[in-house]
Amino acid sequence: MSEKRDLVILGGGLVGMTLALAAAKSGITSHVVDKADPAELTSENFDGRASAISTASWNLFCNIGLKTRLEALGCPIEAIAVTDAMRPGRIDFRPEPVEGSLGRMFANRDLRLALFEAARNEQAIAWHTGVEAVERERGPHGVSVTLGDGSVLQGNLLVAAEGRRSPTRDEAGFGLAKWDYRHRAQVTALYHEKPHDGVAWEIFYPAGPFALLPLLDDAEGRHRSALVWTVAERDAAGAMAMGDTAFLAEVHRCMDGIYGALSLAAPRQSFPLNFHHAGKIIDHRLALIGDAAHGMHPIAGQGLNLGLRDVGALVEVLTEGMRLGLEPGDTQLLARYERWRALDATSVMAATDTLTRLFGIPGRLPSLVRRAGMAVVQRSPALKRFFMDEARGMSGKLPELLRA
Length: 404
Fold this sequence. Notes:
Elements: E1 5-10, H1 14-25, E2 30-34, H2 38-41, E3 50-53, H3 55-63, H4 67-70, E4 75-76, E5 79-84, E6 91-93, E7 104-107, H5 108-120, E8 125-129, E9 133-139, E10 142-147, E11 152-160, H6 167-172, E12 176-192, E13 199-205, E14 208-215, E15 223-232, H7 233-241, H8 244-254, E16 262-264, E17 269-278, E18 282-283, E19 286-288, E20 294-295, H9 303-323, H10 331-358, H11 364-378, H12 381-392
Parallel strand pairs: 1-2, 1-11, 2-8, 5-13, 11-19
Antiparallel strand pairs: 3-7, 4-7, 5-6, 9-10, 10-11, 12-15, 12-16, 12-17, 13-14, 14-15, 17-20, 18-19
Helix pairs in contact: 1-5, 1-9, 9-10
């Protein structure tokens, strides 16, 4: 029987480990369980994906001590260009220089390395890797988790951070609103002839969005961007079967040649896209965070950022409650966490789902209507300010850890 800790976090990915580190900075102890091997998760070829980290999420990383490890590895997003199939009438979001960037792009591998390195040196975190939870119990006085190796972990609150297919969530019987977009995201990184100047492109096609996200130049000075290209499920197999030369020719066509000659900078990967949203995110001594609670289309790059806002809210609620003498599994504290996150999560997910469906309507007339709406936004400083604040994650009531 291991030492009893405040939290037992199931899932040690980007969101789960951020929670453990953020909790540790507030004196909250945790067990973190992950079935994966950290060496595998941080290998060069495991995951070529990159994530857009909003201003609020960057503040969180800085406030839990990751600034030194990460600052030189992120590429600032200086502007966002939104266009309907590269036709006239695009929106350009570009903040004033004094306001800083709209976020930063990081390779997922770099984020994992920074989180794992910090976790190894944190006494408040007991990290259990390469093992699965085989039994979970939530009683009146605490929680216990039995691992596949027979060890038993004890805590006050169980946190499910296992991602979209969370077994803890499903075992607890949480209801989900869910549907399949019948899309797949093709993900890779590109070398390109011309510099990106820190611009993120969101190019909407009826088959799905085509996103180009700026990355830092590599050690040889080659310009790079991450690509997230959404295609219909029926076309995905053919798209992935294309040779690299044909694939790059299609990418060049979709981006209208804006970056010149292209070559691959990472392996091509493919992921199915779906939507799910838990009607509630708490139960007796149980809280959901990240993709265990809500999974969305990557159209606006908000999935990870939404999970990190879950982290900030949960840590703040637990910290304030524990100062008053309440323990982390207290029903009142969990109810406050759920109320805090409900509006933000629902509004972000509704917005991304609406955008996905709106720009997926084919035809000349829908395109004209969309571009007319985009022209209105382009001419309205107030609307552009609203959307830029949303992209930064700086709207609404922010947890203290997500403030500068």
